[in-house]
């Protein structure tokens, strides 16, 4: 089957705009910390440019790679997912940073298995659901196998620990099951169970309790548990309508943790103001809209599930990142897709964009 049309231009332009904008903001937000830590203000910029190059090459490859062939490697990808999530827990292979073992390091190269897990599960579930659409209303035949895979993956990710990635994987799975036609009673039951598990996990560790409660009233402990949120709000409020100017952020000077990753939207708001923040939100809104349109117009069920899963992942991570920065959710490590610094996250997101663009080449409109 030949391509019916060029890749979706609007979606592609949104990806490239966010990517280029992200490179600029990574440099602006990280230069002070990079000079302090590595004596090179371009340290993070150079690495982000390198990962962006790899990511764009991968995106172009998958843009021209027939997405239907991905079904053939769905199960091997699932096995690779489990292998990587186990390897990262092994001392000497998994790299431990800040009490979390989330990276596999080989020389100067490192990979975050939880990022691979997201795409691997989306591909496997899309292939599975395409074949089981007629049994999806049956909990034991259609839904339970998906939940078992999700639960085992989430358990491994939690051991790292990486709570935010666990949330994304769980929500993604539920969305795909919903799109596939799972019964409402099953959805409601799983939501209740999921909420109970989430509460149990949240209150299982003291630092998680602090994170959950600090965003409700960060001013109660400005120098302690509410420090990060208060500094983020300072950054956003300082920006006003037009911002303090690109490169002139004050909060990036060791006030905000990880300003180039988890709090980059706060730096955007500070330097570019309300206008700059709204610009980013609008571009993401257009990207997500086009992604869902591509999913709806996909010529087969596999393409619909695949595009839906990918665009839902991007949307979830975008919403969580903005919500954390604006004190609407507890603080958690969630990069802003296409914009935040990070190799694994950036490359995997660009691969996902390439897959969606390839699906768009088969759509009627």
Explain what this protein looks like in three dimensions.
There is one protein chain. This protein is globular. The mean pLDDT is about 90. The protein has a three-stranded antiparallel beta sheet. The chain has about 375 residues and is mostly helical. It starts with 8 loop residues before the first helix and ends in a 5-residue tail after the last helix. It is about 65% helix and about 5% strand. Helix 1 runs antiparallel to helix 2, helix 4 runs antiparallel to helix 5 and helix 4 packs parallel to helix 12. The protein has twelve helices and three strands.
Q: Determine Rg (CA atoms, Å).
A: 20 Å
Strand content: under 5%
Mean residue pLDDT:
88
Q: What oligomerization state is this entry in? A: single chain
Q: What share of residues is helical? A: 55-70%
E-strand count: 3
Task: Please tally the helical runs, counting DSSP H or I stretches of 4 or more residues.
Answer: 12
Main sheet: strands, sense, barrel: 3 strands, antiparallel
Shape: globular
Uncertain spans: none
Order of secondary-structure elements: HHHEEEHHHHHHHHH
Distance between the termini: 16 Å
Summarize the helices and strands and which ones pair or pack.
Blueprint: H1 9-38, H2 43-63, H3 74-87, E1 94-97, E2 100-106, E3 109-111, H4 113-131, H5 139-159, H6 163-180, H7 184-202, H8 206-214, H9 227-239, H10 264-296, H11 301-325, H12 343-360
Antiparallel strand pairs: 1-2, 2-3
Helix pairs in contact: 1-2, 1-10, 2-12, 3-4, 4-5, 4-6, 4-11, 4-12, 5-6, 6-11, 9-10, 10-11, 11-12
